[in-house]
Specification:
Chain B: One of its GO terms (molecular function) is DNA-binding transcription factor activity. The complex is a heterodimer of chains A (421) and B (510). Chain A is of the alpha/beta class. Helix content of chain A is 46%, strand content 13%. Chain B is an alpha/beta fold. Classes of the chains: A alpha/beta (421), B alpha/beta (510).
Chain lengths: 421, 510
């Protein structure tokens, strides 16, 4: 009934290894023939096939095909089932919004609900649990901290500008490292720039905890929060409180992707103007940017990325984990935003048009030169990965590329890099 | 009620493989967790303490009963009241309060006497009516979070029933982000699945298609898992088997038609008794009906092997069609065979096709016994009727599972997601579980009783004894309630009857 999708799919191998995971699925059963002698590929990855067909039908404006595929997806999908069912459910939502031109409204509602039910306890519980079962965020933290500590070594006054949404979970280890250094403990000023609404509400508790921790560590500490920005381009040296005798580090965790595509060069230029000793950039490895004018290509890339992410979540958490559910729901908002909202409605930069490490490198090279991660830092990262389930690895790039990649089942998923002026 | 007509596209797809093997081992089922959970709930607001539903009474269902009755009574077309509750249901979305303790009209907590089910028999009122009515003490123990979610859910159902799909969709976006099917609170789990089912319906509404897509293997799998942890299926099997056994007394050529045989879990037990009965084993023919010839053949093979080991003469005839879609010539009934027709009803999919045809074929076949096990839930009626009835029904069902399975038990999740949610989704779908828009009979035993061709055969005390034995196998025994009356046997949880077993004979039976 369905032609095999002819689109390129650059992750061909990670689905097929036996998993050491919570799910007791015997993967081999996915390969047995279906009831009526269906080919073996039919059982596995049905969601991907149907979704891609549907995206193509929407692009081709093939109304009856769209209806038929949406119907099938609607019947088969469930956000509480296996990976295929989840992907079908969340992507169906985006496709449905696209077909009914209700993407913007849908996204607004989803975001509002999430913000309403968000609080410090739930956010903290969520991120800590995620960091416990997966190195997705901690990888970037360890690599960046390593680069920052090395670049700022010997400096008495440090100013770290943290543009991230990981609720400052990166900094306790850095504070500890500063406290246990052989020489005098430097003064650390931490300026956190918050862009996601959902995080603003919890920054008060976070700042209290950070100050307390710094006191415990015996590190002279100053904490500032900058929120209420519409986009990063509005930042200035004065707004950030950067003063002359400080050694500045700019830490961007998934921050650049929140900048509208056309504004990225300017933001990078602004970073340069702060005169930092080091800029650390960590981003997820996906390209929703160069494909943004091609619905089908963008859809396929989006599907590829979130398939890896969902499968990673499935194997990292227990089957009935509420934290996993919340992370998946977070994704659903992102998926609707990228696929079902028009570009011209993009006034907040919350679209998160991700780019791959190689693309970010091209941009960053305009203002900076790359700094390799030292062997010590690489060792730290390797030690970190050992603490998690098998499947995670470190990949160092080829000749002309920069940074470090975190890989999941040999698929690069997160890119970390360090830069100097 | 619904915008536009719907296109009935018959399609069943076996291409989807089951996604997991459930944990069968009954011993792995934990014991009831009655501790008040102090943990922050999965979607906390201001560190609300998440309280488990009290095990003494089924307040969730009671409360639902009260509120929905009020909501339905207040529907705009019928009522020009201007009380708070009425106006609140029609307000713009932004005004709908998330936590409703203050805006809860006191009249709902008053002396209202709730109906338990949508059935009309007097027997129901007598056996199941709640003498205490609604009361504050019961409600206050309910999870506050669950309460506000259910309120929003009800408002959403009303929106759908008056065809305000845009508003319903918006509310569903909220609900589906707020309720978790892994929550400690049964109410929240129920909301999560009901919300998803309604979302699915909204999309189908827009598409104008109502036909289902079913993976029978997964469904059968979940059915079996449910059979391992809950007594309802075994109750159905064993009481029916007993009635059939009695009807087959001193008959040596017997024929059973199982209208939806699935994996044939029911029959080995009966085979065993038939094979070892005093008058010696009969020659048994079984006609198994179902959705796929492949699955039927497999079932037939298993049953044949079993019968062979027992030394009982056995024949199996698979029919991969619905009973209401075949004619009498397709049934290989021989002269002199004593016929039993067995039907365990469920809401997973339409097993039998058009009701009137099913009835007619039963009349034509003139069986000596019809064993019928019905869910105490009507598949017919308007969307809102089905919504209210099923919310009550499945809240009770979820409560019964939650009484002794842990919140993070993957087996419980498997049953709730692959079985109960499937049913909920079907019942709320356009055109009801049959997905065909045909009129479904509200209650089969009433229909059988109303016809001259059939006479009820009261369930014997042996059947009752069988049912008791089953209950002794499933903790917590104190939660389940077995009632005999009106010639039927009914098994429910706390105050609510969930399944009713009855038996009938045809006037022209051989």
């Amino acid at each position: 009934m369905y032609n095999n999708s002819s689109s390129s799919n650059n992750n061909n191998n990670h689905h097929h290894q036996p998993q050491t995971s919570h799910t007791s699925t015997s993967r081999s059963s996915d390969y047995s023939a279906g009831g009526d002698g269906e080919p073996s590929a039919a059982g596995n990855k049905w969601a991907s096939r149907l979704l891609k067909e549907c995206a193509r039908a929407i692009y081709d404006k093939d109304s009856s095909k769209i209806h038929h595929l949406l119907w099938m997806l609607n019947e088969l999908a469930s956000p509480y089932g296996d990976c295929d069912q989840k992907l079908a459910s969340y992507f169906l939502q985006a496709l449905f919004c696209k077909a009914t031109e209700s993407g913007q409204r849908c996204f607004k509602t989803l975001t509002l609900v999430a913000e309403k039910s968000h609080c410090f306890d739930s956010a903290r519980k969520l991120i800590l649990k995620f960091q416990e079962v997966s190195p997705w965020t901690t990888f970037g933290h360890v690599a960046a901290n390593g680069a920052i500590l090395e670049a700022l070594d010997g400096e008495p006054k440090l100013h770290i500008i943290d543009i991230s949404n990981t609720l400052c979970t990166q900094w306790p280890t850095l504070l500890e490292a500063l406290a246990t250094r052989n020489d005098d403990t430097p003064h650390l000023k931490l300026t956190v720039v918050v862009t996601a609404n959902i995080v603003r509400s919890v920054m008060k508790e976070i700042s209290q905890r950070m100050e307390k921790f710094a006191r415990l560590m015996g590190v002279p500490f100053e904490f500032n929060v900058i929120s209420g920005l519409n986009h990063l381009g509005q930042l200035t040296k004065e707004a950030l409180g950067v003063v002359e005798d400080e050694a500045v580090a700019v830490n961007c965790m998934g921050a650049l992707r929140r900048v509208p595509v056309e504004g990225r060069a300017a933001v990078i230029g602004m970073f340069r103007s702060l005169g930092p000793k080091v800029v650390t950039v960590v981003e997820e490895e996906a390209d929703f940017s160069s494909t943004r004018y091609d619905f089908v290509k963008c859809f396929e890339e989006c599907l590829r990325f979130y398939t890896v992410y969902f499968e990673m979540l499935e194997e990292s958490f227990t089957p009935t984990s509420n934290e996993k559910l919340m992370l998946e729901r977070e994704c659903s908002r992102g998926i609707v935003r990228v696929l079902a909202c028009d570009d011209d409605q993009d006034n907040e930069g919350e679209r998160e048009r991700r780019e791959r490490g190689s693309q970010w490198s091209e941009r960053l090279k305009e203002a900076f030169s790359s700094v390799g991660f030292s062997d010590d830092v690489v060792d730290d990262v390797k030690a970190l990965l050992k603490r998690y389930k098998p499947g995670w690895a470190l990949a160092q790039p080829y000749q002309n590329e920069t940074g470090l990649y975190l890989t999941w089942k040999e698929e690069p998923v997160v890119w970390a890099s360090a830069w100097k002026p | 009620m619904m915008k536009g007509g719907f296109e009935v596209v018959h399609a069943t797809l076996d291409m989807i493989q089951p996604h997991r093997e459930p944990i069968w081992d009954f011993a792995s089922v934990g014991f009831p967790t009655t501790s008040v959970a102090a943990a922050v709930s999965s979607i906390p607001r201001q560190n609300l303490e998440n309280r488990c539903i009290n095990l003494e009474r089924n307040e969730l269902s009671d409360w639902v009963e009260q509120v929905t009755k009020k909501l339905i009574d207040d529907l705009p077309a019928q009522n020009t009241d201007t009380d708070d509750h009425h106006s609140r249901t029609l307000q713009a979305p932004a005004d709908i309060p998330m936590l409703c303790e203050d805006s809860f009209p006191p009249s709902l907590l008053g002396d209202f006497r709730p109906r338990k089910t949508v059935t009309s028999s007097d027997f129901d009122e007598l056996q199941w009516s709640n003498v205490n009515g609604g009361n504050d003490r019961g409600l206050s123990r309910l999870d506050e979070q669950g309460l506000s979610l259910i309120t929003l859910l009800l408002e959403c159902a009303v929106a759908i029933s008056i065809d305000n799909l845009g508003e319903a969709h918006r509310m569903l976006l909220e609900l589906t982000q707020m309720a978790s099917p892994y929550a400690l609170s049964c109410a929240e789990r129920v909301v999560a699945y009901f919300a998803k089912a309604m979302s699915s319906r909204v999309i189908n509404s827009w598409l104008g298609i109502c036909s289902p897509l079913i993976n029978y293997k997964t469904v059968h799998c979940a059915f079996q898992a449910f059979n391992n942890v809950s007594p309802f299926i075994k109750f159905a099997h064993f009481t029916s088997n007993q009635a059939i056994l009695e009807a087959f007394h001193r008959r040596d050529r017997v024929h059973i038609i199982d209208l939806d045989i699935m994996q044939g879990l029911q029959w080995p037990a009966l085979f065993h008794i038939l094979a070892t009965r005093m008058e010696g084993p009969p020659h048994l023919t079984m006609t198994g009906m179902g959705s796929s010839m492949e699955l039927l053949t497999e079932t037939g093979k298993q049953l044949s092997n079993f019968a062979k080991r027992l030394g009982m003469s056995f024949e199996f005839h698979p029919i991969a069609k619905k009973f209401g879609e075949i004619d009498i010539t397709m049934v290989r009934l021989r002269r002199g065979e004593t016929l039993a027709i067995h039907w365990l009803q469920h809401s997973l999919y339409d097993a039998t096709g058009p009701d009137w045809k099913t009835m007619r074929l039963m009349e034509q076949l003139g069986p000596r016994i019809i064993t019928l096990v019905e869910q105490d839930l009507s598949h017919g009626g308007s969307f809102l009727d089905r919504f209210v009835g099923s919310l009550h029904y499945y809240s009770t069902m979820f409560d019964s599972l939650g009484a002794y399975l842990a919140a993070d038990d993957p087996n419980r999740h498997h049953i709730e997601h692959c079985l109960l949610y499937r049913e909920i989704n079907n019942i709320l779908a356009i055109g009801g579980p049959a997905r065909s828009g045909e009129d479904k009979m509200k209650q089969w035993r009433s229909e059988l009783a109303a016809r001259n061709s059939f006479v009820q055969v009261p369930m014997s005390s042996n059947s009752m004894a069988q049912a008791q034995l089953i209950l002794n196998m499933f903790p917590p025994a104190h939660g389940y309630r077995l009632v005999q009356g009106d010639g039927t046997l009914r098994l429910g949880w706390k105050d609510t009857s969930l399944f009713t077993a009855s038996a009938w004979t045809s006037h022209i039976s051989r």
